Amino acid sequence: MGSEAFKLKDHPKLPKDKIIALVVLDGWGEANPDQYNCIHVAETPTMDSLKKGAPDRWRLVKAHGKAVGLPTDDDMGNSEVGHNALGAGRIYAQGAQLVDLALESGKIFDDEGFNYIKQSFASNTLHLIGLMSDGGVHSRLDQLQLLLKGAAERGAKKIRVHVLTDGRDVLDGSSVGFAETLENDLAKLRDKGVDAQVASGGGRMYVTMDRYDNDWNVVKRGWDAQVLGEAPHKFKSVVEAIKTLRAEPKANDQFLPPFVIVDDQGKAVGPIVDGDAVVTFNFRADRMVMLAKALEYEDFDKFDRVRFPKIRYAGMLQYDGELKLPSHYLVSPPEIERTSGEFLVHNGVRTFACSETVKFGHVTFFWNGNRSGYFRADMEEYVEIPSDSGIPFNVKPKMKALEIGEKARDVILSRKFHQVRVNIPNGDMVGHTGDIEATIVSCKAADEAVKMIFDAIEQVGGIYVVTADHGNAEDMVKRDKKGEPILDKSGNIQILTSHTLQLVPIAIGGPGLAPGVRFRKDLPEGGLANVAATVINLHGLEAPSDYEPSLIEVVDN
Ligand SMILES: O=C(O)[C@H](O)COP(=O)(O)O
Ligand SMILES: [Mn+2]
Ligand SMILES: [Mn+2]
């Protein structure tokens, strides 16, 4: 599409050229105020004060389930689908659902990707690498089960599964049950004459699933186990491996060390060798891109691969449409086009985006419909503030919130950009550690960063829009249907490290907001996909007609 095709009409009532701070608090939902709601417990005067603007300038929106393109309303939101919806202004069927549909219809087994890897089945091994969980954020165990069954039915004779334990999108400790289910399935395949086994494993945050080039050692640990068959821990079975490693003090599913499964002679059962097929079965991109590069790129200097086997590799989805990575994939990703970011730069809106490493791709790549780079380099600037690496974030829960706040402040005060968009990761990243005290500290830091941004907006006569991509820090405990915390036999609560199903706040304000602007009352079901049109309006433009409707109206005062 040429630039002309992106031209938007002027908004009949709202002015152009306002400076807008667009703040996404990662993992910041709305929940009952109790001791497990870290946002409530933390001192968050800035975010608290916004509620006084309800219902005209503060409201809640949906950030989970069908509102963000997930299969059901029991699916919690996540950063990928949340930022996709925020930036694209429309609801797309997302990876989880696309894979479900392809498996249900059997189409996955007829398409190019599967036919490509199938060529290895007759004389080589099929390896499946991915997150073993039913979290539905990066992968789902039932999809792996169907893939295993389908591959065996279509001629795979030797299958090796390389598992990554979760404990982040699901309860810590649940990996044991998932491993048992998987073992059971593999045993059934063995009964049918397929040589099927788990070959290696490790905790997702310590093995393989890094993102945005934060720490390549994580990918290397996985490579050594999965490809080379080498790891510090060796076991006869995956269940034994997980149970033993979890018994170590402070061990948890997210950070289990790498292990390999060995035979009676102590030899690894499943290194990846020339001629093998490999499928990475996560549908979500961000934490598979680094491994995909290691598996696919001939030229690669991020770590010493020692061996670079000539394999047939396919991703569950294509993880990066710009890089065409990987080149083979089982299911086509959602085609998210004409995002708000692209419209805005073609309508004179200069855009700045910033976060720290762990969420940088969220506010750029996911925001822009899974697209890397600029739409127009002369109109945009994206800045990444390096995250701490090699530590869990409860150790430094303030993360880089203040640095992000300072950067946004400086850019706002420079008046060089019309939109200054940030993601403040604290509630989410520290919430995932399950450390309640640290999460409280993290929420306070996020609130302070918001304050810095508001102060700058005040000085330049701008507008702010503050929202979140999904819940996390507002609820840190597993609850029963009545909402009461679930206690174990010893009376301890079960910590919830995952996201939630909660609604998230959105607030608008600032001296530049026209007095008659208020949230409409006729969109009670509004979700994150309604935010793009809202922001486009605040930039003084009418949103494209196929976008979900704007949350605001302008009344004459
Ligand atoms: O990848 C992660 O860290 C979690 O699985 C989901 O968190 P995010 O969707 O907030 O990135
Ligand atoms: Mn998020
Ligand atoms: Mn998260």
From TrEMBL:
Which cofactors?
A: Mn(2+)
GO cellular-component terms in the record? cytoplasm
GO biological process terms on file? glucose catabolic process; glycolytic process; response to blue light; response to carbon dioxide; stomatal movement
Pathway the protein acts in: Carbohydrate degradation; glycolysis; pyruvate from D-glyceraldehyde 3-phosphate: step 3/5
Tell me which residues make up the BPG-independent PGAM N-terminal domain: 99-320
- MF (Gene Ontology): manganese ion binding; phosphoglycerate mutase activity
Chain sites annotated for binding Mn(2+) 1: 428, 432, 499
The subcellular localization recorded is: Cytoplasm
Report which superkingdom the organism of origin falls in: Eukaryota
Record: active site: 79
What is the official name of this protein in its record? phosphoglycerate mutase (2,3-diphosphoglycerate-independent)
